Amino acid sequence: MCTERPTKRKKMVLESLYSIVAVVAATYAVLFGFLKKINEWYYVTRLGKKQNTLPPGDMGWPFIGNLWSFFKAFNSQDPDTFVENLIKRYGKTGIYRTHLFGGPGIIVCSPELCRKALADEHVLFGYPSSAKQIAGKKSLYGISTSEHRRLRKIATNPIHGDEALTSHIEDIERIVTTSLEELATMNRPVNFFYEMKKITFKVIAKIVLGSTQDSVISTMVKCYSDLFPGIISVPINFPGFVFYRALKVKLVYVIKLLIYVFRLTPTLTILNFELYILQARKTLLKIFKEKVKERRAKTMETDRKKEMIDFLMEAEYDNGEKLDDEHLFDLLLIFLFAGHETAAHTAMWATIYLHHHPEMLQKAKEEQEAVLKRRPSSQKGLTLAEIKQMEYLPKVIDESMRRANFAFTLFRRVEADVNLNGYTIPKGWNVLVWSRAVHMDPDIYPNPKEFLPSRWENPGLKGKNFIPFGGGSRICPGSDLGKLE
């Protein structure tokens, strides 16, 4: 009798535990299924009949969408698993619906569809709202197509074409050579990627602003390292979120830029920081406006070389007015950002790949030595003609960009419903042209994970199958300069 009661009690406890576990599991399953459907209901159901022609895919969780699986893939050793998982789940359609970077979107990842998306007149440049807020509403991320076309032409003058590139070779060679010599004398470990960013930032600062100042380069590079993640984050301006931190870092970057260009005082720097906390951006712009006036007063000096900032200061709106200071400042920020990041990544990965393939490194060195042997004794520096004589090094650069895939996607947005191969991309949705998937497609690049510069002996790989700098009317205007660096 005594032994029977504990047994019954134990049985009742176990049954209660089983019931609790079952309820928790059922609740989790229902809640999981409900939460996973919220984005589908909110974004897809409202489309009515058009939802029947949407690409296959998954809209993820409320607010964050598929960002969790995206960052999980990119923090792993194999970031290509993000798109590979879509292919496994929905087949190799080359187009999938998703929810990334704060809104609904369509991932396009086949060469054919990427080409169509980049060429379609209704598929416009469209970075996430976080990018526009951090880079500035008047940066290249936030302006209209007509404005972009006009400013692109102005900004391209000092960085595109043989004459423009030739004018920068001496500065680039001097900055790179001096920086590498300094690194070679260090007797301590260095953060190689950080040093590459410093070098490429010095180069682009010279080209955009016309001067370099070592004392602030390191700080500006660090600020940008904190700022960049916010460009592709969920735009939640609340402590603890990446976007919130990026907005705060933007002020530091802005102030450092003002010091860098116009030699502002530390006291003014601290004041400006407090003003930003009070959201007094207009005060910063007033200060900037005064300094820009001083610089414009020197434009009458005809013997000085024009830099990008000078071309932007001369730029006009359609009504004939000059760019306002806010517009000018946002453009300077984004040119400095975009001008050094890709070059730094490419330089780092090219160095790593060549280190792991000494026979390729030797081949590249022999080519450089051959160029030097042909150089006249009276010639001191590198020339564009010598660069064009190099055949193997450009293959190394192209293969490094293909294999590293720093710019994994090109951001676009549709202004009207677009049909791609029978699938509908709804008006207002983002389009992510997934260049990484194109560059790692084994049907285009056999053994895509191998570093093989020799594959570029096939001229057919260029064009639609190679899009590290984008495509269409908004292809990166600094592609030639980036390769030159």
TrEMBL record:
Q: How does it sit in the membrane?
A: Single-pass membrane protein
- Give the subcellular location: Membrane
GO biological process annotations for this chain's record? brassinosteroid biosynthetic process; brassinosteroid homeostasis; sterol metabolic process
Short name of any one Pfam family annotated for the protein: p450
Cross-referenced InterPro entries, in alphabetical order?
Answer: Cyt_P450, Cyt_P450_CS, Cyt_P450_E_grp-I, Cyt_P450_sf
**Source organism's superkingdom?**
Eukaryota
Q: Which GO terms describe its molecular function?
A: ent-kaurenoic acid monooxygenase activity; heme binding; iron ion binding
Q: Which residues bind heme?
A: 476
Give me the Gene Ontology terms describing cellular component. endoplasmic reticulum; membrane
Query: Which prosthetic group or cofactor does it need?
Result: heme
Q: Which UniProt keywords apply?
A: Heme, Iron, Membrane, Metal-binding, Monooxygenase, Oxidoreductase, Transmembrane, Transmembrane helix
Q: Where are the transmembrane segments?
A: 16-35
Q: Where is this protein chiefly located?
A: membrane
- Which family does this protein fall into? Belongs to the cytochrome P450 family.
Q: What is this protein called?
A: Beta-amyrin 11-oxidase-like
Instruction: Give the organism, scientific name.
Output: Gossypium harknessii
